[in-house]
Amino acid sequence: MLRTAGLTKNFGGLTAVDDVDFRLREGELCSLIGPNGAGKTTFFDLLTGALEPTAGSIELRRDGEWESLTDASPSAVAQAGVHRSYQITNVFPERTVLENVRVAAQAAGENAWKGWRNTATFEEHIEEAHGILDRVGLDALADRPASALAHGEKRQLEVGIALAGDPDVLLLDEPNAGVSSESVDDIIDLIADVATDHAVLLVEHNMDIVMNVSDRIVVLNQGAVIADDEPAAVREDPAVQRAYLGGYGEDDGDDLPSSGATTDDDEEVVGA
Ligand SMILES: Nc1ncnc2c1ncn2[C@@H]1O[C@H](COP(=O)(O)OP(=O)(O)OP(=O)(O)O)[C@@H](O)[C@H]1O
């Protein structure tokens, strides 16, 4: 579905992403984890065209053919069907929840340039937006200004915006950031639901979420892949425990870590 080969990004003398061969398969939910500064955001920025790679390639499979996204612009990547939900919100605060999703649906639509004048298209986008809001659990709040949403609801809205235009691949950037620990189950349900009909790459520090939803986990450390396996195998991998997990799940899989990845909310305790 989406693959990289030798993907590398240097910032001056620093290699933030180091020769990464990665593959996201159709229907798969893959998580990308690693300590602060491991290169997760940079990898996302490369996949979405926000950054140009120093070396390597990015390809998306569409209609049975591999298509290069290596030098594609962010809008070309989005047009190709790879959408990202942002850790730093891209919500218009004064607009309503519905408007935020409708505008995203319109921008993603094939007839975007006609949208403002074409009533049928406008109605279609409103319908799509309501469907998406229903899916992310926000339809009851459709007429609220986005600024009035709680943290967790904003994350839900960001996922909704990323869903607009029906992408093939969803890149979810810390959908749990700033969300209270009571809402973790809602976020798990939301991620699991969108993964039923999209290939999903998730960056998330909360290991309870990652271990719960992932089909596969890729671990980055200092820009390089140090593990790529099923959750149980990754959890038991000594190199991953050393670099990131710091004791998480070593005894019975349910313990909170004494250090390492966060398990409940917005506090990040992972060492760089
Ligand atoms: N624009 C930039 N210029 C220079 N260095 C950068 C730039 N962006 C990131 N870096 C460096 O690249 C490395 C990887 O950073 P990145 O933000 O990708 O890590 P991360 O895994 O997303 O971390 P976090 O979990 O804290 O979000 C870090 O050492 C960071 O300081």
TrEMBL record:
Keywords: ATP-binding, Nucleotide-binding, Transport. Pfam families: ABC_tran (PF00005), BCA_ABC_TP_C (PF12399). Signal peptide: none annotated. InterPro entries: AAA+_ATPase (IPR003593), ABC_AA/LPS_Transport (IPR051120), ABC_transporter-like_ATP-bd (IPR003439), BCA_ABC_TP_C (IPR032823), P-loop_NTPase (IPR027417). Residues 244-272 are annotated as: Disordered. GO terms for molecular function: ATP binding. Residues 263-272 have a biased composition (Acidic residues). Residues 2-247 form the ABC transporter domain. This is ABC transporter ATP-binding protein. It comes from Halolamina salina.
